[in-house]
Design brief:
The structure holds two protein chains of two kinds. Helix content of chain A is 71%, strand content 4%. Chain A is mainly α. Chain A has two domains: 389 residues, Na+/H+ antiporter like fold; 116 residues, NAD(P)-binding Rossmann-like Domain (Rossmann fold, 3-Layer(aba) Sandwich), CATH 3.40.50. Chain A is elongated. In chain B, strands 1, 2, 3, 4, 5 and 6 form a six-stranded parallel sheet that branches. Chain B has one domain: Rossmann fold, CATH 3.40.50. In chain B, α1 runs parallel beside α7. Chain B has nine helices and six strands. The chains are: A mainly alpha, B alpha/beta.
């Protein structure tokens, strides 16, 4: 088989992913394993559809890891970190340190050098965020004590990967230079390098605050969606370059940049623009890893591999169990915690690839480890099944476990997403009338107040499906979509409609364009947030000018009916126009159509009720 | 089969045992369209076009409401003001309703005796409804006497069930044209005897 042109290569990779990933998900193995299997199948030890090109692909794919860390940084919510600080630092920190130490010790006993053993220890210490979070979410266990603890540990691991990546070059044997030639800081003394790093990070903070907003707004005004995406990519690539120039790893650099940019208003835009690239490149990365698994090696020593897999799972399991006891998890929660996290995670592949390229990990160490890591990941769905079917029922405390004192699980018929000035009026009104409501909001101060008052409230990003699930969307009759960012309202409606076609969605829209999008996505009712207020102003103006207020009020109602009918009609004719004309020009054109529609409607002003004109004419015989 | 339009007006249905039962009976009836005015127009913002279309599509209009201050709840008066337009329902060119019939299904808190000549109110319910009767005539429609549930405050659940069953019979009789307007013209109220064929 020729490993020829770009299209052939792209076809092989994409086809492998598109076939293997759904199958793996279907079998409950998760997407990461799906990519690995796809890689193994098309790799040199499988169908050999890809050859040396795999190495080139690897370099591209590693950028997926850089993007992943950028997104991890973006998603770090300071408030969440603070709330979970004890379990993140305590539980997460201890898990990483103890596991690393234990695994390194065993590796040393097996005859590895110190540096290599420590590197192996770090590789083994990380668990799979992707697999565990997905598993816990699917089972609605994320809100349990065990779920929260697992979440904390995973969060710590995600962050710990950064210093690990920074540590690997230091562990590497001398002479093995980090890839990449000259940087700006080559000739500088240590303090100069430190200063350069601080300067770069400071520069990102300042530029993120001051420049990013205007620039992105400028780009948004062109109305070209792809330009926005290009700008987001440019940002990540630029930061990666800058960071390597000051001597940081691109991954560490983009992670820091992500944290810095997490507090800017463009956080969600950046996230949603980077997300598909991140996903695709990460998928590519995992395929490349799968293709690099040396099955000849695995096949030649199946006993060793099996023993390593077993030892890894058992060792991590026992450490987790011990930590769970130390941190006061009850019996069943401790079990769940330990059953959820013993696999080795996707970051291990990153570390293994990085370690190999540094010459820190020899091929005969790294190759079997890749297989071991993949096998522990494959084992985790089986472990969860064993926990659910065999172990948990014997512990016999199922009903009592899943709830924390302040986690009221949602049976309320109404779910309100977003509790700022808009949502809180809706919520207060409903509660005043005895309608039970559950609130999802991601302002921690607001959530604290609501919790103190004993209201059922979930803290977090309301557009997250897992959070909606635990808040009870599946049993809710109405979802009020009331976030203050139109883009997120739209994302929320899209998600909910796809997964819960039954629930009625009452959505807040900022303007007409929002309203169109929300209507297209299947919101049951759409409310433009300024329409009623603006009409009330109009009524009061007419009243102030001496018109009868009753007539003015009736006229406003007629006008609103007309406007809503026109909205539905105009929704049909927009579509591609916005893309063709650009958003700004389309808005003007739309205003013109609206005014025209007002002029075409003769009865907007004339209220037929109590109008004796025709009667008078008939009486006079005219 | 002539179709019956029930124009229903109760501002607080959740507090009325009798009207809930009656409305349920009407909603179940295959020949009946229920138009729940307070539900459709919570802001009393009546859609005249919709109402006129409904009237056009039905042969018999039945106004179902509780007596408030010897009259209808306010939305029914507003409904007449807005929907029965000059040139449409009445006037030289207003023939849209000509030939149709109009009746009322009324509940009253007081007992039947209170609405007899020597009773507490001195006047029958039919007489209290005289403005509606005149409206009916102005619109060239046929007026039928009201069907009445008396003494609603004292009804027990079983009596309410019986009233709802009788209401369902009335609706069927109206839909099937079994009530002769001439024969009931002078009656104070419609009673089962008017549609069971007895004398």
């Amino acid at each position: 088989m020729e490993h020829g042109g770009f299209f052939e290569q792209a076809f092989v990779y994409l086809a492998a992913a598109v076939i293997a990933v759904p199958v793996a998900k279907r079998l409950g193995l998760g997407s990461v394993l799906g990519y690995l299997i796809a890689g193994a199948i098309i790799g040199p030890f499988g169908l050999a559809l890809i050859g040396e090109a795999g190495q080139d692909i690897m370099h591209v794919a590693e950028f997926g890891v850089v993007m992943m860390l950028f997104v991890v940084g973006l998603e770090l919510e300071p408030a969440l970190l603070w709330r979970l600080r004890a379990s993140i630092l305590g539980l997460g920190g201890l898990q990483v340190v103890v596991t690393t130490a234990a695994a390194a010790g065993i590796a040393r006993l097996l005859g590895l050098g110190w540096a290599e053993a420590v590197a192996v220890g770090m590789v083994i210490a990380v668990s799979s965020t992707a697999i565990v979070l997905q598993t816990l979410e699917e089972r609605g266990l994320l809100q349990t004590t065990a779920g929260q603890s697992a979440f904390s540990v995973l969060l710590f691991q995600d962050i710990a990967v950064i210093p690990m990546l920074a540590l690997f070059p230091l562990l590497a044997p001398r002479g093995a230079e980090v890839a990449g030639g000259h940087t700006w800081v080559d000739g500088l003394p240590a303090w100069g390098r430190a200063l350069a790093v601080l300067g770069a990070v400071g520069g990102i903070v300042v530029a993120g605050r001051l420049l990013l907003g205007p620039v992105f707004r400028l780009i948004a005004r062109t109305g070209l969606r792809e330009l926005f995406t290009a700008a987001a990519l440019l940002l990540v690539v630029g930061i990666a370059l800058l960071m390597s120039q000051v001597g940081l790893s691109p991954a560490l650099g983009t992670f820091l940049a992500g944290v810095v940019l997490a507090t800017t208003e463009f956080r969600h835009e950046l996230e949603s623009d980077i997300e598909p690239f991140k996903g695709l490149l990460l998928g590519l990365f995992f395929i490349a890893v799968g293709a690099s698994i040396d099955f000849a090696l695995v096949g030649s020593q199946p006993g060793t591999i099996a023993a390593l897999v077993g030892a890894t799972l058992l060792g991590k399991f026992l450490i987790l169990l011990g930590l769970g006891r130390g941190f006061g998890l009850s019996g069943e929660q401790r079990g769940l915690f330990a059953f959820a996290l013993p696999q080795v995670g996707e970051f291990a592949f990153v570390l293994l690839a990085f370690g190999s390229s540094l010459g820190l990990l020899a091929a005969e160490v790294a190759s079997p480890l890749v297989a071991v890591v993949a096998l522990t990941m494959a084992a985790s769905p089986i472990l969860m099944l064993a926990w659910e079917r065999v172990v948990a029922p014997r512990l016999g405390t199922r009903e009592v476990t899943a709830r924390e004192a302040d986690e009221m699980h949602g049976e309320a018929p109404v779910l309100i997403a977003g509790f700022d000035r808009f949502g809180n009026t809706v919520g207060r009104f409903l509660r005043a009338n005895g309608v039970p409501t559950t609130v999802i909001d991601n302002d921690s101060d607001r959530v604290d107040v609501l919790r103190r008052l004993g209201l059922p409230v979930y803290y977090g990003d309301p557009t997250r499906l897992d959070l909606l699930r635990s808040a009870g969307i599946a049993s809710a009759r109405v979802l009020v979509v009331a976030l203050d960012e139109p883009g997120r309202n739209i994302a929320l409606v899209r998600e909910v409609r796809r997964h819960f076609p039954e629930v009625r969605i009452f959505a807040r829209a900022e303007d007409r364009n929002d309203a169109y999008d929300l209507m297209d996505l299947g919101a049951t009712q759409v409310y433009r947030e300024t329409l009623d207020t603006a009409l009330r102003v109009g009524v009061d103006v007419m009243g102030a000018l001496g018109r009868r207020t009753h007539a003015a009020t009736r006229a406003a109602r007629t006008f609103r009916r007309h406007d809503e009918a026109a909205l539905a009609e105009l929704a049909a004719v927009r579509g591609d126009r916005a893309r063709l004309l650009g958003v700004a020009r389309e808005r003007i054109a739309e205003l013109e159509r609206m005014l025209q529609a007002d002029a075409d409607e003769p009865d907007l002003e004339r209220d037929a009720a109590w109008d004796p004109t025709t009667l008078r004419e008939e009486m006079r015989g005219t | 089969m002539p179709r019956v339009l029930v124009a229903f007006a109760h501002p607080a249905l959740e507090k009325s045992r009798v009207h809930r039962a009656l409305l349920a009976a009407a909603s179940r009836h295959p020949a009946v369209t229920v138009n729940d005015l307070y539900q459709v127009y919570p802001d009393a913002d009546i859609d005249v076009g919709r109402e006129q279309a409904l009237l056009r599509e039905h042969d018999i209009v039945l106004l179902q409401f509780p007596m408030y201050w010897y009259s209808t709840p306010p939305i029914l008066k507003l409904w007449q003001d807005l929907v029965l337009e000059h040139g449409w329902a009445y006037g030289r060119t207003g023939h849209a309703l000509a030939g149709k019939s109009l009746a009322c299904a009324v509940t009253a808190g007081g007992p039947r005796e209170a609405y007899e000549p020597g009773g507490f109110n001195r006047t029958s319910i039919r007489q209290f409804l005289l403005p509606l009767e005149s409206t009916t005539r102005l619109c060239r429609m046929t007026w039928l006497p009201p069907w009445i549930v008396h003494g609603t405050h004292r009804l027990d659940p079983e009596q309410i069930t019986r009233a709802a069953a009788e209401y369902a019979e009335l609706l069927s009789a109206l839909a099937e044209g079994r009530i002769d307007p001439v024969r009931v013209a002078e009656a104070d109220e419609l009673r089962p005897i008017h549609w069971t064929g007895g004398s």
